[in-house]
Sequence to fold (577 residues):
Amino acid sequence: MKKPTSRATMLATAAATAGLCLTGLAAVSSPSVAATGSCDTATPVAGLLAGDPVHGLTVTSGTTPSVFTGSVLGVLDDGIEPGVDMVMMKLTSPEISDVGGIWEGMSGSPVYAADGSLIGAVAYTLSFGATPIAGITPWEDMQTYAGHEPAPLRVKVPASAARAIAAQTGVSKAQASAGFRELKAPTVLSGLSPRALARATGRAYLGSDVTAAGHVSAQNSPTAADMIAGGNLVATESTGDIVFGGLGTITSVCAGRVVGFGHPMEFVGNSTYGMAGADALFIQGDSLGSPYKLANIGDLLGTIDQDRMTGISGPLGPVPASTPVTSTVTYHPSSGAARSRTGSSGVQLPDATAAVTFYEMSANHQTELDAIQSGSESQTWTVHGHTAAGPFTFTGGNRYTDTFDIASAASFDLADLVFLLTNVNGVSVDSVQVDSDVVDDTAVYKIVGAEQRRGGTWHAVGAGKPALVKAGTNATLRLRYAGGLHGPSFKLAIPARAAGMSGRLFASQVDGFPFERDFPGTLGGVKRLVENAHRNDQAQVQFFAFGGRTKPVQGQVLTQPGSKVVTGQTSLRFRVS
Fold:
């Protein structure tokens, strides 16, 4: 699967979904139990009537589900897709009342009929904001993963249904007519602070709806015994330093197989998410949008191997293989001893490798620098991968200087490269390794002019002093930097047909973000991009010559990498004899 349309963007939101469970209520039907489960019987949707009482389970704090109640409002025929109806309900509990309605992270919460059979999972809510009105994905469809298209993000409500909702609830007909929206299974990210996450938006592989989460200590991590109907469910895309995934609720457990969410995570079909539990902290109200659950994420307990229209599913026990993303950051402060840390994350879902690469680098910088600060960095990296034709290895590096946030400045390029690779069909990334040496110094080489070597002597060229070159030879030049410094010499090939021409030479810092210049569709295309990537400690020099009856002449050369980032620009005239 290559870059699906994101339905529950995997970037992070310390929110979670809640689950329904039957703790301490003998009069209510027994839900699934841990590990083996009770294999719930589906309530026939065709037999539901408006006003039928329901009860459900969801976690609001910790790992133990609590009960909510409600009633059926009606059924939208084919409300989710052809052949899959949506059951509309009004739900109530102290927590639902406290935060104004159903929260993000409640996706998957099981809802039962009076006879104990399982009607389905909370998966939708009204579009206009916080509301106790829920759209339920039927369990009879979740069992079979009916349909071949993703569940719609928005569900229209006929006028008759809108009138019924308005008559039985506190919402207006206009609000009900706006329809249902998919209830988010909030994406969760453990390993970066909210401040660091705020700097991560703006890339296609990152998205913008990311919130920080926590990670439960190993001794307190939820176990298989906590993976019950109504319990917290996390589908992880990565673990390690960066725990990254979507947090929702378990709908049912049967023969050690867990089903939850009631809608897709990313709708990738056969999947390799990790499966984890979570420890819910509280439900956070939101006056501008939907409330959501905050939680700490637990260790892996199994694999989510299905990501389908009506939910996600997978077995407890075996965990998926992971692609290692490793970052070593060595910091040499201007005062005090150097310190170094190697951090690593394992990526379960290949499409998340680019995002996790960025997050791992950012987290490791954050740990070692312990600040958003200026600095310079020398960076090298290696990416191993394979195709059906065999393995490949890309190596490279760059130099960065930033007067505000060196961690952010140095963390995008490699993630951009990994993003390109994961979007080439047939390419698998096997490992990512990056080494960063960071110093406080932010000095750069600023271009202020140029010099030409003629007759064994360097001559300043610039205003009123054009470079004098001969056609068919190599002109030897070097750039002048502020502070009386100069760069390495370089040769500019002057074609013979340029004789008698004049023109201009432009020298400047290189363009940034070398892996955002193209979007190759082949491994060979990515390889060429890597081989031709400009470094920030190089300067790019271009010349254009005109005159005579021949076509204009142009050329370009890069200076050799230096010990500092190059900035600035200069322009000068030259004449060709």
